[in-house]
């Protein structure tokens, strides 16, 4: 592959990430006002359960699907080819969003939850996009390629909430239909730009189930060297998801704001994430290294989460922009770390483990945070700060062990190049 071809592939991956993530993010500023501020209906008051608890469960079903999908989607792409698995899962995502819109129209909480679960399973494919970006090394430096992929994800998180916040006037169901259209565009993009490669020689069902059983992302946890970064990321994303999932609830509870304000706050957050990830993460990594940046970025994020629930409206956009900077620094290091030191175990599988960890954390936080938010959404975000602090302690405790692994890996790479 030439560098020019690698740049074209990275551009395609970034466009896929923007469209895919925008489809995911479209409903985010919509769900909290829909469950908490809209006129009661059979979906938002299912069986007389408190709307905040139903919101928590509805937030949990999507990442639960992501969890299921990411356990095997990345690994299947290692065996069957990135393109084939992406096309199948993107089609499934499109169907999932259409079914979600129908569930809202017919006011069925069970159908809504199952549709969100299906959509999540199929959207485990974001790990494939990151694997493609990582495999462009050495034509494009690994940290740079992954950082640009993450910047595209952040752009999707910015575009999606803006669209959701302003399109909600046409109805909540229409937001999910537009998300389906965005994913359909991503499907067409993959069909015409990603080349066929890495097709499996054995396509039998026996081979399929063998890949899932023996080569899924969770098998990486047998490697003791990966456990420190896994436990860090698990605790870190628990805290991060406490913020992601419940800051819209905080807007409704404490500032009495709706979808448009939530959307603009998300713009401030993600715009800084895009800028830092695109232009600074790779330079910071080259100068300071992954471990130091993870610790510093997480520490600053922890402090921000402690203060954020108590700010007034005039500080919202500044504080959310600052949080975006710290998230980009810490987030950008984890996939680079995993790809660089464990990519030989399968890039799709490694990226799948990262996303699987994120999803487990999201399911737990959404399920537990819903009941806690009845007391106060502030408590959920503060609990998130405590979890990020716990993740920092894990990194500090295992820092020497991880550095020894990095030094060993570096020596082995130097030996191979001689």
UniProtKB/TrEMBL annotation:
Instruction: Supply the alphabetized keyword list.
Output: Membrane, Transmembrane, Transmembrane helix, Transport
What's a Pfam family this protein contains? Answer: MFS_1
Keyword Cell membrane on entry: no
Q: What is its main location?
A: membrane
Topologically, how does it sit relative to the membrane?
A: Multi-pass membrane protein
Q: Where in the cell is it found?
A: Membrane
Domain Major facilitator superfamily (MFS) profile span(s) in chain numbering? 6-403
Q: Which domain of life is it from?
A: Bacteria
UniProt key word Membrane: yes
Which residue windows are transmembrane per the record?
Answer: 7-29, 49-73, 85-106, 167-192, 230-250, 262-281, 293-311, 317-338, 350-370, 376-396
Question: What InterPro entries does the entry give?
Answer: MFS, MFS_dom, MFS_trans_sf, Sugar_transporter_CS
Q: What is this protein called?
A: MFS transporter
